[in-house]
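Entry:
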Amino acid sequence: MNNEQENVLTVIQETQILGKSIKMYGTMNNPLFLSSDVADWIEYSSSNGKLKVSQMMKMCDREEKGIYNVATPGGIQEKWFLTEDGLYEVCMQSRKPIAKEMKKEIKRYLKQIRLTGGTVETGRESEFIDKYFPSFNEDTKLSMVKDLLDQNQKFKDQIDQLEPQAQAYVDLMTAQGYLQFIDVAAMVEIGRNKLFEFLRRCKVLTKQSNYNVPYGRFITNDMFKVITSKSESGHISSVTMISPKGLNYIYALMQKKNVLDKFDTATLLSKIQELEVA
């Protein structure tokens, strides 16, 4: 096998979400999505229905996309792919209602896979067994399906117990006047990743693993609060919440650096005032 064949991406998982065929490449920890597929999923096209893939790819930073070899009917070709973060970024920036719903459903799907440590989607256990173990007799298949159903239910119960606790704390912070970066990003016309990049350049945030975390001094002075949770599988996730004080600081920083023309200033000021009153 030559190097070109060894480096060809193949589909590692395929499912149906919102009526679209969702194909994943790469690995479960670092999935990749074919750019033309993504454009189709979120209906990123011109008035005549032609997909605007190259324009969509401009929404992403360099680390959120890449060119890889993939097998096509015409042979092995180089194609643009999006990382998981890249997929979420284009979904966030798209104005199509399906984009937000697609982002939510794919995040839920990947979360299930990572928490269960497997790739068997709940409700499709029998399909999985029939596809990968067609030669097994019906009694064996039935037993395997039952085991998968029991295992998936066990992990679903664990997720159902953990999620409300984590969400309740985030809801509490929101009620107390804190916002998530995703909320602030909705007011920022240049996109969430550009905001992260700006705050990293200004030494407000630092990149730790896959998360943008505030420097300690911004946490101790109550500008930010970091909520960290750990799942049963050991996966650690963090959510950074921004206080009115932190939002004011970001606004002042944007003024100082003369980048306010790139932001929805009116909405940002309105939100600051709203949080301060609350």
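The first strand starts at residue 8 and ends at 9.
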